[in-house]
UniProtKB/TrEMBL annotation:
GO terms for biological process: proteolysis. The active site is at D86, H124, S311. GO terms for molecular function: serine-type endopeptidase activity. This is Serine protease AprX. PANTHER family: PEPTIDASE S8, SERINE PROTEASE APRX. It comes from Actinoplanes philippinensis.
Length: 507
């Protein structure tokens, strides 16, 4: 049985490049019909080169400085919630302590398979989570903001299959629940994007991130990994932080840093706002995940993994924003953006477009006076454009029938009515309990560690039900993480075989 899935990314949101694949579990829930797809920033990129430790990256950005005017060494991001919309987070060492990861609703196609809910079967989300806020005293691994807590919203399945409607639903959930007890969501990390060419003024995904920004959430997006004169969607939105990747060139000093060859340059109209280290960053590994089996040379010891991309660069910025907000919790998103851009260090050989304001310097940002006139005045997005156009060139499709999800409808076949949605999303009320856009996507309440799941109704666009989807009778249910492996399961050799991740997807 064949299952594939993919979606494209634009302006910093990773496009998942997923192609036809034969899985050890039987049919996956969705597939990509085209030979190559990507949510910008979501497919794995191993650019080789010298490994870069997150602690070294933070140090190079001044994140461990203590002097008369800055004390970033004592900042950990404590109390700051960073929402991560990605492929989930696995309970590996460094992310498994109580309160570190809070699961929002699992909106992925795997949410209907017991044992796969919330877990990161791909490996991308866990890598980002480690960079942002990982903390493992036993190994010494630390992310940029080890004291911050993460709110994980899983949207992508093991093969990256995800529709743009799932991502928009996840963003709306973050906005609706940003002030829930214990969450305090101040940052949203989006390490992916689509290749939508729809204007950011009308694109629904652009409107969703702008609404989050205007509700007080600093939205950090990846610019894309094609080395192209564009950024992915939603990084194209001028309000949010669009992050490109810097290449440390194997050293801890910044004098030789350059723009990574894969980092999208953008245009005069819209380009990365700033850069952060994005080549060969070492973060947490998910044994047995897709990228772990497909890229064994990227493993660093038993628990760590190397990856490159504007995805990683965005995660570095998200963690740094958590530090800044711990220091000055009253900062608005516009003030955070202005501080980071004003404090950025120009490259020795700057690119007037692709490098934006320069490279992240969190220590300098922490010393600057709070800007009083930081309000951005871009034309507000309307969100009244096409959901289909927001998908760009990538579509999920039923793994058996091959029917693609196209047109102005979400994954449940519900019609997309822009005026109705934008009114609710603008007010942070797009979710009613577990219902979004007229369908039940999740349970209505919190169980203490995770948002409750629910059984999905029949999917009318294919005539198939996602509920009860079997993975060949051998799911990841009940897997133990003891010793860093999926106990009792060998994932060596040909598992997840046949999957091609061409290009630079999931940056």
């Amino acid at each position: 049985m064949v299952g594939t899935g993919r979606w494209v990314r634009r302006t910093g949101i990773g496009v998942v490049a997923t192609m036809l694949a034969t899985t050890p579990f039987g049919a996956g829930p969705a597939r990509a019909a085209e030979p190559e797809v990507r949510l910008a920033g979501a497919a794995w990129l191993d650019a080789g080169g010298a490994n870069a430790a997150v602690t070294a990256v933070r140090s190079a950005a001044g994140g461990t400085v203590r002097n008369g005017t800055a004390d970033t060494a004592s900042l950990t991001g404590a109390g700051i919630g960073v929402a991560l919309i990605d492929s989930g987070v696995a309970p590996v060492a460094g992310l498994n302590q109580p309160g570190k990861v809070i699961n929002g609703p699992d909106l992925s196609f795997e949410s209907q398979t017991p044992g796969l809910q919330y877990l990161d079967t791909y490996g991308h989300g866990t890598h980002m989570a480690g960079i942002i806020a990982g903390s493992d005293p036993s190994s010494g691994f630390q992310g940029v903001a080890p004291g911050a807590h993460l709110i994980s919203l899983k949207t992508a399945a093991y093969d990256g299959a995800v529709d743009v409607s799932q991502v928009i639903a996840a963003i709306d959930w973050v906005v609706a629940h940003r002030n829930d007890p214990g969450l305090n969501i101040r940052v949203l990390n989006l390490s992916f994007g689509t290749d939508s060419i729809q204007p950011s003024l009308t694109d629904p995904l652009s409107f969703a991130v702008e609404s989050a920004w205007k509700k007080g959430i600093v939205v950090v997006t990846s610019a894309g990994n094609d080395g192209a004169a564009r950024v992915t969607m939603p990084a194209a939105n001028p309000y949010v932080l669009a992050v490109g990747a810097a290449d440390p060139n194997g050293t801890d000093t910044r004098t030789d840093d350059t723009i990574a060859t894969f980092s999208n340059r953008g245009t005069v109209v819209r380009h990365p706002d700033l850069l952060a280290a994005g080549r060969s960053l070492v973060s947490l590994r998910v044994p047995g995940s897709y990228i772990d089996t497909q890229y064994p040379t990227a493993r660093v010891g038993d628990n760590l993994f190397r990856g490159s991309g504007t995805s990683q660069a965005a995660a570095v910025v998200s963690g740094s924003v958590a530090l800044l907000l711990q220091q000055r919790p009253g900062l608005t998103p516009d003030q955070v953006k202005q501080l980071l851009m004003k404090a950025a260090d120009p490259l020795a050989k700057p690119d007037p477009i692709g490098s934006g304001a320069g490279q992240l310097d969190i220590a300098e940002a922490s010393t600057l006076i709070m800007p009083l006139n930081a309000t951005q005045v871009w034309a507000p997005a309307t969100g009244l454009g096409s959901l289909e156009a927001s998908r760009g060139t990538s579509h999920v499709a039923d793994s058996v029938s091959g029917v693609e999800l196209t047109g102005e409808r979400d994954i449940f076949g519900m019609p997309w009515v822009p005026l109705t949605w934008t009114t609710a999303a603008r007010n942070g009320k797009a979710w009613t309990g577990g219902t979004w856009n007229g369908s039940v996507w999740s349970g209505p309440g919190f169980t203490g560690t995770s948002w409750a799941s629910s059984s999905w109704a029949l999917v009318t666009w294919t005539g198939r039900s996602w509920a009860g989807r079997s993975w060949a009778g051998d799911t990841w249910a009940g897997r133990s993480w003891a010793g860093g492996t999926w106990t009792g399961r060998s994932w060596a050799g040909g598992t997840w075989a046949g999957r091609s991740w061409a290009g630079r997807s999931w940056a």
